[in-house]
Automatic annotation (TrEMBL):
GO terms for molecular function: hydrolase activity, acting on carbon-nitrogen (but not peptide) bonds. Residues 1-22 form the signal peptide. PROSITE patterns: NODB, PROKAR_LIPOPROTEIN. CDD domains: CE4_yadE_5s (cd10966). One of its GO terms (biological process) is carbohydrate metabolic process. Keywords: Signal. The keyword Signal applies. This is Polysaccharide deacetylase. Residues 142-310 form the NodB homology domain.
Length: 310
């Protein structure tokens, strides 16, 4: 968020002379459990049939998120659920963009996921969240929704193996214009996006939703969602939804207005997430849902406050 693509690209150009190559096994200060989890990532080689694309496989794979699971409710039910918002992740040793609030250390992310796991949290899918919000189902008292914005490759390289290790589910809000067919090697010094091949490979952990097709830009500090003509926003949203086959949305930069709300409602978006801090309460307005942004400045005590404040 906050136009970090441009900022990071600029920093990359400045720093590219002194690139540090990433070697996980030589990172001495990293927690050994975390190191083992990251190194366990085996990228799958997927063979496509004739005339089939990775995007076709994605549409088929995403269907598994259209089922609501059974939950144990013996410890009580949730009246409020925190939705956590993450962006880009890098190991502390390879983060040459210190000061960028959208980049969280992998080590911190791991610590937070370990807290959720040890505290007995259930990570719910967006369909389960939607059914809970509308009062159709109950969810366990300790429920949480984990979300990532923008669709960065780092969320495959780092978040995916960590979430899988804890048997967690999470959601990614994709800028679908950035998703191409073929994957490329991870380079921590460049801001890279997930490809459809990467996305297919991670469907056992992640579901994928909408973060506009190509409106993740700022114009005079206003997101394109609120600065572009209504027809333009409408068409982009339809394109976004057709590529994800999903009816959930996150506002780039948290920017929206009444006209945007009307558009999302008219195209059938069921839930939309803001960047307004706070838990979601049962019955909240589905197109203006709170999320807790997790930044490098978020202390562990603040994180504990966010997840316990329910
Ligand atoms: Zn974003």
């Amino acid at each position: 968020m906050y136009n970090k693509k441009k900022a990071s690209t600029t920093i990359f150009i400045i720093l590219c002379i002194g690139l540090v190559s990433c070697n996980f096994s030589s990172t001495s200060s990293i927690n050994q459990d975390l190191l083992a989890i990251i190194n366990s990532l085996q990228k799958e080689y997927i063979v496509l049939n004739d005339n089939e694309t990775f995007h076709d496989l994605f549409i088929r794979g995403q269907a598994k998120y259209k089922v609501v699971r059974d939950f144990e409710l013996i410890n009580g039910v949730a009246d409020e659920i925190p939705v956590l918002m993450y962006h880009h992740l890098l190991l502390s040793s390879e983060n040459n963009f210190k000061g960028n609030s959208a980049i969280l250390d992998v080590e911190t992310f791991f610590e937070q996921m370990e807290i959720l796991f040890k505290s007995g949290y259930t990570t719910v899918t967006l369909l389960e969240f939607e059914k809970w919000l509308s009062g159709e189902i109950e969810l366990p008292k300790k429920s949480v929704s984990i979300t990532f914005d923008d669709g960065y490759l780092s969320n495959y390289i780092y978040a995916y193996p960590i979430l899988k290790n804890f048997n967690f589910k999470a959601s990614q809000f994709l800028i679908t214009n950035t998703a191409k067919e073929e994957s490329e090697p991870f380079d921590p010094n460049v801001l890279q996006y997930l490809t459809w091949e990467d996305i297919v490979s991670t469907l056992d952990v992640f579901e994928y939703s909408n973060h506009t097709h190509d409106l993740h830009h700022l114009e005079n500090n206003k997101g394109f969602m609120i600065s572009k003509p209504i027809d333009y926003v409408y068409e982009d949203t339809l394109e976004n939804m057709s590529l994800t086959n999903c009816k959930y949305f996150a506002y780039p930069y948290g920017h929206y207005n009444d006209e945007v709300l009307d558009i999302l409602e008219s195209v059938g978006i069921k839930m939309a997430f803001t960047v307004k801090s706070g838990p979601v309460k049962k019955g909240d307005s589905p197109l203006e849902l709170n999320r807790y942004g997790i930044f490098p400045s978020t202390s562990i005590s603040k994180f504990n406050y966010m997840i316990n404040n329910q």
